[in-house]
Amino acid sequence: MSETIAALLDESRVFPPSSSFVKQANFNDPAIYNVANSDSVAYWEGWARNLDWFEPWTQALDWKRPFAKWFLGGKINACHNCVDRHVSAGKGSKTAILWEGEPSDVRHISYSELRDEVSRLSNALLSLDVKKGDRVCIYMPMVPELAMAMLACARIGAAHSVVFGGFSADSLHERINDAQCKLVITADGGWRRGNIVALKKAVDEALEMGCPSVENVLVLQRTSNEVAWTDKDIWWHDLVPQQCAVCPCEPMDSEDLLFILYTSGSTGKPKGIVHTTGGYLTGTSATAKMVFDLKDDDIYWCTADCGWVTGHSYIVYGPMANGATVVMYEGAPDAPDKDRFWRIIEKHKVTILYTAPTAIRAFMKWGESYPASCDLSSLRLLGSVGEPINPEAWMWYHEHIGGGRCPIVDTWWQTETGQIMISPLPGITHTKPGSATKPLPGVSICVLNDLGENSAPAHYASVANGSVTQSLGGYLALNQPWPAMLRGIYGDPKRFEHVYWARFPGYYFAGDGIKIDEEGYAWLLGRVDDIMLVAGHNIATMEVESALVDHPAVAEAAVIGKTHELKGQAISAFVIIRSGFEANERLVNELKDHVAKKIGPIARPDDLVIAADLPKTRSGKIMRRLLRDVAEGRALGDTTTLADPNVVNALKDKYESSEG
Ligand code: WT7
386 CB less than 6 Å from ligand 1? Predict the structure, then answer.
């Protein structure tokens, strides 16, 4: 696979940070890479010392592959570090959470208000007999109480398991039982495009299916829709406000469970990814400060939902451990209109925006008039996460959102890594559109071939310094521990070893393909399951997608390899076109030719369907597995994680008629 992956993207534009950005950056000396990588454990210890510990650690790292423990013997509390210590340091009146609801209700919650609210909620949890070590399921809309619930659990030493509010009762049921949660915290509903998402109803259904561990359900009133009531249910407003606003932070062992977060791999039941306290907080607070160049006066907005790891690490724990002002938005980007994000940035003078390529592509499709009608001059840094960002989307983000002046940090990481692993440092790295650039200081990566041989230099420091003489391609793996790494799969250590450490013994295999170019830049290629083998050539689906999106008529594209008698796999493309272009045979051929021209004739799609929509998960990832089912004329596989199940049926009809 190596050669062909190596022959992938051809992107030569380079964007150095402006000298004014460099001057003010938290990190602007490239020496940090060598310092960190010459002793990465000492480097992470340095970051850990920026946190408040009740008792210092006695051993920095215990590494018995695949199990790592960080800061052994240390006692720490995540809520204390994210809230109380900022109040003690005199920042009590600073806004911690700047929240906007979908109906445009706005709340500014200061760090001292946050401390009081979280303490009341912690006391409420204690009154419901939630104790250190118990698990609490949080199933809420994006309201400040969601972040408060996470922090209140951390305060008393209970582990949270946040389930994204878009998940069904079935998914919720499965996750509650796997973690044996004692309490569910939810809301009557949340707002989404003017409609109420009936969260409490889904909790009722989940509990009816049988959740014997659940003793109570704490319900926040958000939408005031009618809800059914059982004797387990308690209104938030009947219990929380009367609690005492003082509640001590439980001193936790560095390796005590902080949270479980379920991630749905491609097969099998969801995996409860386990994150612990001291290392996770070290990794997320350090990377938030480095990658987002966080300053005291920033207004930082990560558009993710707290139901995903991005919300855990870069809405709550990382930024708040730095005492940042964090924007939280409840609703959809097109509610009431397609300029909602830009209005929020203008209104609150947001300085840092962290969002996902799927959102950026939607903005591109809607057109630049929406951002152009707002004042985005407060922005100084942009981030991207979730999937590879194609160069076209990168350039659009750079020009139309960043006004050509904001560095873009394309951050590669996973639920499992807990913290950003590969990303530019905005005051140092010269970025290339579509590349996540280099591993962060203190992080090393490996590039493996099919045999599991490491083709990258033993330590990545040399790559970061540009000493690669030849480009490399292969499987992205990690073989050195990092502080926020997952500690396992909840309740299933065997599955942890099997899923992550078995394919290449001794290495954590991330599941992604990667190419390193001659200058040591990393190009993430998506899941290796998404790499096609066409007539003996490996071609990444994202590479063809990038070529398609590069055409002015294309707003979004999804590509899959369909079984082909002769070639092994043939390329099928599904394309959404921009308004103003007409879907016809001529355009279909023009698009196929465009791919052939950009990548080579081998990559010319066999079929190309112009579609109205693409099947996506609720986190915005295209479900290529379903597209393969469509292209190969199979019955559709499991569609339960689809955001909108109708999309794929419509596509099936379309595909069959275009073939016929
Ligand atoms: C997978 C992890 C990390 C938080 C959100 C997703 C893909 C993520 C990038 C990026 C290319 C990326 C990878 C990874 N991915 N960020 N910047 N460039 N690919 O968390 O649901 O655990 O998904 O998302 O394939 O393995 P997740």
Answer: yes
